[in-house]
Amino acid sequence: MRSDSALFGLDNLPYGVFSPSATPGERRLGVRLGDAVLDAGAAARAFGSPHHALLSAPTLDPLLAAGRAVWSAVRAELREWLSAPAHRETVAPLLRPLSAVRLHLPFTVADYVDFYASEHHAGNVGRIFRPGGPPLTPNWKHLPIGYHGRAGTVRVSGSPVIRPLGQRRPAEGSARPGFGPSERLDIEAEVGFVVGTPSTPGRPVPLTALRDHVFGVCLVNDWSARDIQAWEYVPLGPFLGKSFATSVSAWITPLDALDAAWTAPPERDVEPLPYLDDAGQPPGGLDLRLTVAINGETVAEPPFASMYWTAAQQLAHLTVNGAHLRTGDLFASGTVSGPTAGERGSLLELTWNGERPLELADGPRAFLADGDEVTITAWAPGPDGERIGLGEVSGTVRPAP
Amino acid sequence: MRSDSALFGLDNLPYGVFSPSATPGERRLGVRLGDAVLDAGAAARAFGSPHHALLSAPTLDPLLAAGRAVWSAVRAELREWLSAPAHRETVAPLLRPLSAVRLHLPFTVADYVDFYASEHHAGNVGRIFRPGGPPLTPNWKHLPIGYHGRAGTVRVSGSPVIRPLGQRRPAEGSARPGFGPSERLDIEAEVGFVVGTPSTPGRPVPLTALRDHVFGVCLVNDWSARDIQAWEYVPLGPFLGKSFATSVSAWITPLDALDAAWTAPPERDVEPLPYLDDAGQPPGGLDLRLTVAINGETVAEPPFASMYWTAAQQLAHLTVNGAHLRTGDLFASGTVSGPTAGERGSLLELTWNGERPLELADGPRAFLADGDEVTITAWAPGPDGERIGLGEVSGTVRPAP
């Protein structure tokens, strides 16, 4: 494992929001370099940046709304401030150790949409719940299936996750549903895309316009209560099985840091409709290598490059009906699962619906136990063989009330 | 039909946000009385109200967040200002004719949840799409089914609705989905509940606490593209078939105005789990009489009193998993349909999936045509045989781009 300094070098520079330990009520915009956080507002003032107002805001919202040209200009400034030897003395006092700050949800989540874009994940779910039938529903290869989640319960990495109460399917022979703490609490390792520039109501966003709208990427753990979900989801989809918590990384990696990570998505065996057809476009997949750990033990390494539907296709689909984007919209990929058993991004798949528990150091795990800490990390190829780290998303399960 | 003055008297006093025609960029908080709008901020300043800051805001958000005691105090002030003869001269210049203002979306929608709480509606949908099977899914009588919609496309009454583009199921014999403007654009006549006071993360809200959290009620038209929805919704529920537009009335009627409208919900033939059991509670249904008109012709009169699941039950269910409420959360009832054919709140049911078109003055209608204007109105019993009007929700269909 490389050091964090190598994963969060000058070619990365993700954005977040922090409080200094001494003044926990304050919110400042920060940029990560190695194991340090640059106070971006203070730096902008020190260097007389034209973007000092954006960078002095208590959230990323104004920067997100400022648009692509400003994103590039700010990134160029940051690289200059953090690399030019002449600036070293100015910058040094504005860098704080990560250990001396608290990180916050860095932007206001407008709408949260969750997709279902991994063929391996959707296929595994189909094989588990509809054995004998075709693993994918008939629409799956024609559109990136998605649904709206609860924006209000998106929280930053490190926030605890309280095991949800809820109904589950009546036990064999009973007419009454069960009720209580979820017995099948699960994770979903995902990648999220954060919208900066809004779009116009009524105007679909073409898949070539991803980078005009999307500011950056975060890691997402879309915690899921499988027993609640299984009972409630017909016919209107997941609701309480998902809405109790969605964790996101504290750091948003700008798309500009991922230039070397674009890769061709898997070959499409069904021709997409024109608004989803990316043949002839630059590669729309992203080579992000995820790692899922429970209490420090790696349980899966899901490869984002294996996702069938790309972020650009998800964006085009999301808006094809005229729904517009707002600054702060978050859309996540759905569980990232690769073709092999060790690449699955949910316990549902890793334990095959609990039938084959994982053997962890402290015992077997079909689903999550109270006290379990789940951490998702990822890296992407950067320039010259470097690695670009994504901020981790982590959370510990607390018992139901 | 009674005059608007009778429907919007002193016992009603709904809240909205308006711009004076002369200064369209301004936003002011307004209270409706008859066909006039009181400039609430100006009145608060004129009378030296302790709530002048809340009432001078450009949205209802601060008032919503202020909580139940403030809602009651402000309402008492408004009634005093608008009724005492001594105040007449002060108030008169602060009242503007409705025709001289433009109305706006009155609050920031946080999360939007749509329920499915009418047994008649859910049953009709079941009979249409799963003929021969049981009309309700096995979970329906055990929980108020719901899902999250798109908060960003909630818009105020009077906003046009652009016919969405989208995929539909492949035609018989074709492997490729159809694509184009929806051919089955529909309405859903609903009642929405606007959350004021937030709740604590991880703490379910009991069904006795509705009035501690919910500020008021609006009318909702949850526009639906049935062809898009039918193709996309398995397995994760409705998405693009709904997300293009949801219209809400410009006026939010405070729950305090609906004291005389509470009524017992239909008898439950399945005993609800304890967190949903309202036996022994004051009646949780609301006697709101809706009218749906297309181009001025009444096509349905859905009775909200016939809803199986109450707003209090919806709130208790929404939060039972620990999901918290935020100021501005909007939860809608789902289509309001009564037991008889003239009481159905969607064209899907009124025309039985297009098989029996409505005969309107300008021709038959299976689903909505471009140019159709849909208006939903409602009233509730008030004190002493009065009627309390809800603000209308109206929208005109514009052709697809």
TrEMBL record, chains A, B:
**Protein name per Swiss-Prot or TrEMBL:** fumarylacetoacetase
Sequence ranges assigned to domain Fumarylacetoacetase N-terminal in this UniProt record: 12-106
**Do you know which PANTHER family this protein is assigned to?**
FUMARYLACETOACETASE
Q: Which cofactor does it need?
A: Mg(2+); Ca(2+)
Per the record, a Pfam family? Answer: FAA_hydrolase
Which keywords are on file for this protein? Calcium, Hydrolase, Magnesium, Metal-binding, Phenylalanine catabolism, Tyrosine catabolism
Q: Could you tell me one molecular function GO term of this UniProt entry?
A: fumarylacetoacetase activity
Gene for this protein? fahA
